[in-house]
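Exercise 7. Given the components listed, write out the predicted structure of the assembled complex. Treat all entries as one system.
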Amino acid sequence: MTIVPLLVDPPDATLIRRFLNGDERAFRELYVRHTPRLKMTVRRLLGRTGPDVDDIVQDTWLAGCRGIHSYRGDATLVAWLTSIAARTTYALLSRRNGRETPLHDDVPEPRAHAPESGIDLERALAALPDHQRVVVVLHDVEGFTHDEIAAHLGMATGTSRATLSRARQALRQALTTGVSNAER
Amino acid sequence: MQNDDRTREELIEYDDDERRLFAELPREEVLTPGDVDRLVRRLRFEGFFRARVNAWRWGLAAAAAIVLFAAGTATGRFAERRNSLDALLARSDLSITDRVLLLQRAGTAYVQAAQSYASATTTIDSGAVEVASRVLMGAAHAVARNGLDAGLSARLTSALQPSVMTPVSAPRKPVIWY
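Answer.
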């Protein structure tokens, strides 16, 4: 994932150190600083809004706090949290798909309006099969590499590549079909 | 870090419009009110945060301790002065029982003072003897004068008065005149 130096004051490392010393205000500042981004990512990974988003965000922070000693600072804190959220979300989706409907590679249904805005892309992403959506979001939106995705989701690197390829085809077809329908 | 194989042949590359759509995706979402409080409660339950003690609370506690200490000291000194022998002797509102106790305390104080003097010196000073004797005598007089001796002084007085008995003369032996 791309590391963007954050020129914020106080820096995350300082807040983390204060949090580890029991400073509640430092934690609240970290939460307010990173949760908006984390929450959007989780919602996009899930492909929907709802209580699951808040639950996963909370679980992510809890897991992050419990394992904060293992955070070495070689990635940004939000990237580290995103990797935790991705694992949590993927596990939830896999459990649900295993219980309800199996993961599939179906192309999303074409829509009847023009995909000319970010909202249309959001809809197209949400319509992707769960594992394709997770890989696309992590790779094309969040900037993770296939190696990182494979490590976080417990899959082979080649599987991540193949999934991304199929997901991009599906996205393009959905967006193009939408444009075609709108032009008719 | 995107140094992977995105340029592989089988992977579709996005065109400019698609890249623009991705770039325009919103990156943040508004926070749900109360979520952070719920999380903080959970983390506090797990022992992540130390108890918050404000500095002003420490100051208040220290001030209260000082006030309590000063009040306790003043109360103790007042009680000590109020129950001293001198203060009790000056009071006129004592009950009969308290006055009996006062007698006992005064006597105990006299005995302790005498023992303390005796243990502090090896040679008895004539002045001390006189003081001790006069105090004891004065106390005895006061006791007798106030009828607190159960008639002991009267009995002693009568016992010590010189008797008016006729001297017992030895029986005269009959003189036998030859």
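Discussion: Residues 100-115, 179-184 of chain A have pLDDT under 50 and may be disordered. Chain A touches chain B through 47 residues (CB under 8 Å).
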